[in-house]
Amino acid sequence: MKKKEKAVVVFSGGQDSTTCLFWALERFEEVIAVTFDYNQRHKAEIEVAKNIAKELGVRHHILDMSLLNQLAPNALTRNEIEVKEGENGGLPSTFVPGRNLLFLSFAGILASQVGAKHIITGVCETDFSGYPDCRDIFIKSLNVTLNLSMNQQFVLHTPLMWLNKAETWELADQMNVLDFIRKQTLTCYNGIIADGCGECPACKLRKRGLEQYLSAKGE
Question: How many CB atoms lie within 10 A of CB 182?
Fold first, then answer.
């Protein structure tokens, strides 16, 4: 049974955030998606997000966050920076400092304006690339900060926090949207929709999780 409440989903059009969007649609009476344009390397992800939101009939906001591009050059905002996994305990070249801090803060402002109590994000500490702003402790800390800063009682939801990629695919399958997410989302760092390039770290993680899930399912 859905709660008669509003929710805002931080939405990139990728596997994780689309899974979270469906998760929210099952639980809340009204769901609003917000996508951030920070002059990311692949504008295709914004188009993918727009198309999915339109197909699902979800109100969709796209917010200009181009200052983040200026302040935090990395492999997701600069073509000349190679996509590389972290070495010797370092962060991957795809880490964008402050991204989730800013995104969730602005999602909180939007939630305040539209009267939404719930904010959903697809961050995950189980299968992640070492990003500090994907950790559960960060989300809990920011939840307190947002509530204090705006005198609100927001609830930050992280449905994928303790799921590995195989379990994320399983969740999609339980909601009967596995094929939708596989064919219509964009996770690839090289900007290729669906199964992607198969070579970048995001594609490898996504593919390995899908194979593990389908194998466990007997397919």
Answer: 15
